[in-house]
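step: validate -> pass
step: tokenize input -> pass
step: predict -> running
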Amino acid sequence: MGKKVKQTIQIEGYEIDISNSDKLLFPQAGITKWDYLLYLTQLGSYLLPYTNNRLLTTVRYPDGVDGEHFYQKNCPKKKPDFVDTMKVDETEYILLNNLPTLAWLANLACLEFHVSFHYTTNMNAPTEVVFDLDPSTPEFGPVRETALQLQQILQSLGLQSFPKTSGATGLQVYIPIENRYTFDQTRKVTQFIARYLAERYPKLITVERLVKDRGNKVYVDYLQHWTKKTLIAPYSPRARSSATVSAPLEWDELALLSSPTEFTLSTMIERIQQKGDLFATMVQGPRESLDDILSFVERQSIYKHGGQR
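step: predict -> pass
step: emit ->
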């Protein structure tokens, strides 16, 4: 048996031990733990703004993508001083707030980073509305078409939206909103729009929660958008054999996209250098008001129930 080599790296003044750095985490892509660490440290400045001060759920693959995996919400009892946490109910969540924490998680073979729709400072006020589009077949065309139809509806409502790949087979569409709505309010909006889409395109789109009832349709998931629930963060890798990444897109680009699998750890930095952070405008730009559509949806609810709220 060869001696296991432990390496130590220094990031932002902190020393982090890296064990089994030559272990293949993505065998098909030839990415070792050391390679993964290098990719993540390059991606960190783009990923961290979308994980900062949000509840983190990570997925660990100790033996790489071909091995067993488990979801981790609770922070390990033994953690470095630079790792921030927040206790919610009985869970001590990790907060992915800095580059040393990202490197520490990379050493733990955390291959996916899922974050809450809200900041830790306000658990009931989402920072954006998100529709998660989940295809029922491997074909990308139906989910792309669903996203484009959703964009048209949002545009007609005067709402700006931003798409990204899930890093797997799906897409997500984000609407940056003013940080003053509750999840109950955003649920009224997302439910209304999702059901409208399903009624308008019944052969393409469904809001059926049960997989067995979806057939070949694209599932528009509006239920995932809720306090303490999570979604894959922009620029997070995914535990796929080709080391795909959840990639922000341009709408024009999406319309011509044949497959999301070209966005990987090995191509992402060059892409960002060429296009910049396509989600930066969503974060730094104007926030949308939901007042008009909320008023409309609530009026519809009153009429539907005979004037009784």
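step: describe -> The longest helix spans residues 183-200.
step: cleanup -> pass
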